[in-house]
Design brief:
Chain lengths: 397, 140
């Protein structure tokens, strides 16, 4: 269908393709997207402010609630930052348990993404399949940590629960099933024509451009860039001989390939972790109230990319400042490149291909909510002929 | 006959307030997934709020999302019922009183059933939805 005039297509804030509210304003000419404006801040709560009013231990709880999918990596990186401020080190076994849960989180996140990506292109069987397999890993996570979503296992100086010996056969059996089923899902996704036709060659991101924009996670690895925080050697990844997976397609399809390969890699790593896990304590025997002056950084590879927690202490019972940089925040900028020139009907697939998590992202934004509240009247702004202003509060190409 | 059929034909719309982690959203989708299978109760997820009978509301409402949130609810023609899922949607929990939060969903739209938990398990979501379906049945 051709349109003689440009029009603005509002994608969001309440849109069936996204679970969370987010607003993309796409200017469309002749079926192609020519301009993109990303409005963020719909999920802005102010967690960073919240953390400043909680003590060091309560902040673990708060940082876990930054994201409901990758909460574990947020607490891991926060705890790592505070541990380096205190000059303590988590015991070896604690690091292995943290890594085990981080990999399980990656497994369930990638299965979740594959399901939602299938759902997005109208392949609902794949959605049901992935979410059915995902319940297996949720059971394993629940067995290890006691919870399905917020594990609450990290604490400063170690982990709060040990992996019990009597659970091991069950976890191994679960991993076997996961590996079998994930290999099957990978086979389906890679051989299906619908997925290939909807994902191959769309959402192209040039590798040089990706480096310049600072893209992280599977989006960067889908451009052939070997960037992975796990190679820096935190937790137990050096012992496992970890190598990042890259694909050179630069498109949504290669991002899918990266995630599917990582899924199987993570399952293999989980098994290696269970076998190689050293014995010993899981927590250092030290409690504290105040942390000395200083600042430090915790970096962890989340399922979507790099999570950085920057923690500043002024010798108080509360953190002075915690700044969080989440992977989607880094990757959202790439969307502007990817969406320009794409067909309108591919927009949702492209946005889905970076695996956006707005709940992580919007916390990190500096948005003046009080002034935004009065001025943001989306529907009025979208009326034809309205000269929409591009002032602060959103990223624009 | 029509009433009987309507009892097991419920279109649910998942409405996110924005002021929470997305743990509850994920558990709602998991509840709709193959293991917990909300379709056994006749609940299917609809893509547009205008067709919705049942609103599944998660998270507290942020200032920026307030307008879109209320508008989405108002688009649905009656009768309709609202389920608030998770502690954030009930009290705001951890995020209560933060500068980004406008309030809990029941300040803006009438909520019928509350399902507590952080996040509630899919079983709890299922049980809560059963109650909501009864509430909805009384209004039809």
């Amino acid at each position: 269908m051709t349109y003689m005039h440009d029009f603005i297509y509002p994608l969001g804030p309440v849109h069936p393709e996204f679970i969370e509210p987010e607003f993309f304003k796409l200017t469309v000419h002749d079926g192609h997207i020519i301009d993109v404006a990303v409005y963020m801040g719909y999920n802005h709560k102010g967690v960073e402010k919240l953390v400043e009013n909680r003590n060091w231990y309560q902040s673990i709880f708060a940082t876990e609630r930054i994201c409901g999918i990758c909460g574990h990596v947020h607490t891991s990186s926060y705890c790592m930052a505070v541990e380096s401020l205190l000059g303590i080190q988590a015991p070896a076994r604690a690091n292995w348990i943290r890594a085990l849960l981080a990999e399980m989180e990656r497994i369930h996140n990638h299965l979740l993404w594959m399901g939602l990506a299938g759902h997005g292109i109208g392949f609902d069987e794949l959605f049901s399949d992935c979410w059915g397999v995902r319940e297996t890993v949720m059971d394993l996570v629940e067995r290890i940590s006691g919870n399905r979503v917020h594990y609450g296992i990290n604490t400063i100086g170690g982990v709060r629960r040990d992996v019990k010996k009597e659970d091991l056969p069950r976890i191994h059996a679960g991993l076997d099933r996961l590996e079998r089923e994930s290999a099957r899902i990978r086979e389906i996704a890679k051989s299906d024509d619908r997925i290939r036709m909807r994902m191959k060659g769309i959402g192209i991101l040039d590798p040089d451009r990706a480096v310049r924009l600072g893209i992280v996670g599977p989006v960067a690895r889908g451009c052939g860039i070997e960037t992975d925080v796990r190679t820096t050697g935190y937790f137990c990844y050096p012992e496992l001989g970890f190598k990042p997976i890259t694909h050179k397609g630069n498109d949504a399809y290669s991002r899918m390939e990266v995630r599917l390969d990582e899924l199987l890699q993570s399952i293999r790593m989980c098994r290696a972790m269970l076998e190689g896990m050293p014995s010993g304590p899981v927590k250092v025997d030290r409690r504290f109230v105040r942390v000395d002056y200083g600042q430090s950084i915790g970096r962890v590879e989340a399922p979507r990319g790099e999570v950085v927690h920057f923690v500043v202490s002024r010798g108080d019972v509360n953190p002075y400042r915690v700044r969080v940089r989440s992977p989607t925040y880094a990757n959202l900028i790439a969307l502007i490149d990817m969406l320009k020139g794409a067909h309108l009907e591919d927009a949702a697939t492209i946005i889905g291909s970076i695996d956006p998590c707005f709940s992580c992202t919007d916390r990190a934004l500096v948005v003046d909510e009080r002034t935004q509240e009065g001025t943001l009247t989306n529907l009025d702004e979208l009326s034809p002929g309205h000269n929409h202003s591009h002032d602060g509060g959103h990223a624009h190409a | 006959m029509l009433d009987w059929a309507k009892k097991r034909s419920i279109s649910a719309f998942h409405l996110c307030g924005g002021g929470g982690c997305n743990g509850c959203d994920i558990e709602v989708v998991a509840a709709g997934g193959p293991r917990y299978d909300l379709e056994q109760l006749g609940v299917t997820f609809t893509k547009t709020p205008t067709q919705a009978d049942l609103f599944i509301v998660t998270d507290a409402v942020t200032w920026k999302n307030k307008k879109a949130f209320i508008e989405a609810y108002q688009q649905a023609t009656g009768p309709k019922a609202v389920v608030a899922i998770g502690n954030c949607a009930i009290t705001g929990e951890l995020f209560r009183g933060l500068y980004g939060i406008a309030g809990t969903p029941d300040r803006f739209i009438p909520v019928d059933v509350y399902i507590p938990g952080c996040p509630p398990r899919p079983h709890a979501i299922r049980e809560g939805l059963k109650k909501a379906i009864k509430v909805l049945g009384g209004r039809r």
